[in-house]
Amino acid sequence: MKILKSLLTGLIGMAAIFLIANAVYADETNPDQPTYFNGGIGQEEADDMRLHARDYNLRLYFSEGKKGQSITDVAVTITDKKGNIKLEVEDAGPMLFVQLTNGTYKVVSQHNGVMKTQTVKIVNRKGVNVYLNWKNSMADESEEIYDDAVSQ
C-alpha cells in the first residue's frame, strides 16, 4: 500500500510539473508583456489547453488546408493600438492563449512565408477566439488561393 501511495504521489507531482512547464508566463523584466499559454500538440496537451482556455481572453488557433490540420512554428506578433509590441512568439501553435488588458490589438502571424493579419478587440473578460487557417498549404496543392487577410 505504501508503494502505491508513493507511486501515486510521484505521478501527481510529475503531472503538476508538466502543467507548470507548459505554461509560459510574462517576462519579469517586462511587466507589460502579457501572460500566455502556448502548445496543444497531441490530444492530451490539446485537452489540457482547452481546460485552461477561459483563463485567457485571446485564444488563437492555427491550422492549414481544407481540413484544418493543426500547425506549429507560427511566428506571432501582437501590437497595441499605438504599435507597441505586446507579445512576440517565434514558434506558436497549434494554440496560443494570451491574457491582455482591454483594448484593440493587431495580431500578425506568419507560417511558411505567408503572413496573416487580424485586428481584435478585447473587452472586459469576454474572450475572443481567432482561427487562422493557411488554406493554400503544401498539404493541399489543389486549393484555390484565398486572400491572406481572411481568417476563419
Secondary structure layout plus pairing:
Layout: H1 2-22, E1 23-24, E2 35-39, H2 43-52, E3 58-64, E4 69-70, E5 74-80, E6 85-92, E7 95-99, E8 103-111, E9 114-122, E10 128-134
Parallel strand pairs: 3-10
Antiparallel strand pairs: 1-2, 2-7, 3-4, 3-7, 5-6, 5-8, 8-9
How much beta, percentage-wise?
A: 35-45%
Query: What is the fold-level CATH name, i.e. the topology?
Result: Immunoglobulin-like
SSE pattern, N- to C-terminal: HEEHEEEEEEEE
Query: Structurally, how many domains make up the residues?
Result: 1
| Biggest sheet features | 6 strands, mixed
CATH class: Mainly Beta
What would the principal axes of the Cα set say about the shape? globular
Number of strands: 10
Query: What kind of assembly state do the chains in view correspond to?
Result: single chain
Radius of gyration (Å) = 18 Å
